[in-house]
Amino acid sequence: MRIGTVTEIKNHEYRVGLTPESVGELTAHGHDVWVQSGAGLGIGASDAAYQAAGAVIQPDAATIFAGAEMIVKVKEPLAVERAQLRAGQVLYTYLHLAPDAAQTADLVASGVTAIAYETVTGPGNSLPLLKPMSQVAGRMAIQAGASALEKAHGGRGVLLGGVPGVAPGRVVVIGGGVVGFNAAQMAVGLGADVTILDRDPAVLERLDAHFQGRARTIYAGTAALAELLASADLVIGAVLVPGAAAPKLVSRAMLATMQPGAVLVDVAIDQGGCFETSHATTHADPTYVVDGVVHYCVANMPGGVARTSTYALNTVTLPHALRIANLGWQAALRADPHLAAGLNVHAGHVTYEAVARELGYAYTPVAEVLN
User: Fold this and answer.
1) Mean pLDDT of residues grouped by 10 in the chain (371 residues)?
2) Same domain assignment for residues 238 and 170
3) Active site includes 270?
4) Catalytic entry in 106, 193, 266, 270
5) Domain shared by 13 and 60, yes or no
């Protein structure tokens, strides 16, 4: 199979779909790999490194979109990229379609076969291709939030860890999954006063056992959330409904009760955000203020630590890429129901139920496509 990876063009996105090491694995299996010139510079990977791994360097993205049978990316294709996709081509990347009607419409119209990293499953309903970026985003959320809390950046002027004689900052983490756990770990490590909210008793029990009193766990009822927001310095939105739009857990009315200069970091922004006042921002202009509360809603947070993120991502995406290339996408999906869960769009049909429901498309089950 001819596989292509292009330079990511989303604002301040420095990750790349394939590392030179991943290219080497694919070429060792007899596949042709085309890499856009300069695609790896954001992670310190030169064209020469890709060539040494067996890649063919192409001068532009258009050549790769036109000639590759499978496109491997990191972020969702932007409009100029979507216009170059075609029927029979496989797109393998993060998509986050539920809150993105324009992207979904373009993918449906293109006829492409689109496999989304974020809905590929693993044992126990886990999301293994989402996990490493959730780990990165959760940890970065505390870094970003701590910076935004500085007075010069519009925040309250609070140091999360405090100092002797001064109380630490109060951090509220909404959601105890992978993002929330990693955010809480970082906040606890800094010495902050940390509370984690979740609705799953098993999650609360697991977190309580792990943190052993260094972080509180509370059932995420509306009253509890409202009470905690009123005194929080930093709130991390870490809620995920796989493949669907994030629920709006913090309303504009709740925002009005928060302290001036408090900070919200919405890690769920890829799925539309879990704060009513959230809208996507970029690394170039990451924050804005609503009702005195600083919002950090960067939609590609892990792109800020591109080398770490790319290598972590390739660890989990490469095995599936190899199966798709070795077997063809249909046989690969038939052989692996976890990978089949990643199919979101195929030949003009929406094949992921949550996306179809959210955006009003007829739902075509994956099994129907494969049969």
Assistant:
1) 97 96 98 98 98 98 98 98 98 96 98 98 94 96 98 97 98 97 98 97 97 97 96 96 86 96 96 95 96 96 96 98 98 97 98 96 97 87
2) yes
3) yes
4) 270
5) yes
Res 68: pLDDT: 98
Domain stop point among 282, 299, 316: 299
88 found inside a domain: yes
Choosing from 96, 320, 346, 349, the catalytic residue is: 96
| Domain containing residue 346 | 2-119+305-370
Q: Give the chain as a 3 state SS string.
A: CEEEECCCCCCCCCCCCCCHHHHHHHHHCCCEEEEECCCCHHHCCCHHHHHHCCCEEECCHHHHHHHCCEEECCCCCCHHHHCCCCCCCEEEECCCCCCCHHHHHHHHHHCCEEEEHHHCCEHHHECCCCHHHHHHHHHHHHHHHHHHCCHHHCCCCCCCCCECCECCCEEEEECCCHHHHHHHHHHHHCCCEEEEEECCHHHHHHHHHHHCCCCEEEECCHHHHHHHHHHCCEEEECCCCCCCCCCCCECHHHHCCCCCCCEEEEHHHHHCCCECCCCCEECCECEEEECCEEEECECCHHHHHHHHHHHHHHHHHHHHHHHHHHHCHHHHHHHCHHHHCCEEEECCEECCHHHHHHHCCCECCHHHHHC
